Amino acid sequence: xxxxxxxxxxxxxxxxxxxxxxxxxxxxxxxxxxxxxxxxxxxxxxxxxxxxxxxxxxxxxxxxxxxxxxxxxxxxxxxxxxxxxxxxxxxxxxxxxxxxxxxxxxxxxxxxxxxxxxxxxxxxxxxxxxxxxxxxxxxxxxxxxxxxxxxxxxxxxxxxxxxxxxxxxxxxxxxxxxxxxxxx
Length: 184
Known about the structure:
By secondary structure, the chain is of the alpha+beta class. It has a domain at 59-169: Beta Barrel (Barwin-like endoglucanases), CATH 2.40.40.10. The protein is built from three helices and seven strands; from the N terminus they run ααβββββαββ. It has helices at 3-26, 29-33, 130-135; strands at residues 59-65, 87-89, 98-103, 109-116, 124-128, 145-154, 162-163. Strands 1-5-2-4-3-6 form a six-stranded mixed beta barrel. A hairpin with a 5-residue loop joins strand 3 and strand 4. The longest helix is centred in the N-terminal third of the chain and has 24 residues, at 3-26. It is globular, with a radius of gyration of 25 Å. It starts with a helix and ends in a 21-residue tail after the last strand. 22% of the residues are buried.
């Protein structure tokens, strides 16, 4: 072993010892005293997936909107995010759910279709496209607002449609002028 290799090996060993000493000093006294064998180390626990909620109940929480960088990206249902669509992201509502989002501060509401998963920020229950956020009165300066999300129709796991709390208030969707698509 050359002199340079010995110096590098000694530096690595010193660095490893210092890292172990630092780690032991940041642990509570009882944990620092009990060394843990490599085979007994616990694997990291992944965050549990939120359960899909097919009950049709209204949820109250904070809403935000998609940043511009998500425009054109694929959403969880495979469609591309269009900032002008009435699409939304929810961690717990099934994809394809139609829901009424009401801003509890302004009273304004809009109907959205859940097409994506998110928001990935603690305390938020729905992400809206910029057009929908504007309809319900969420502006870029505030960015977040308290909303009620009321499912209108929730697709159950076997693809039949279940109506939610907001179903009696809604009208059948009409196709846009010039559109050849039939109403859903």
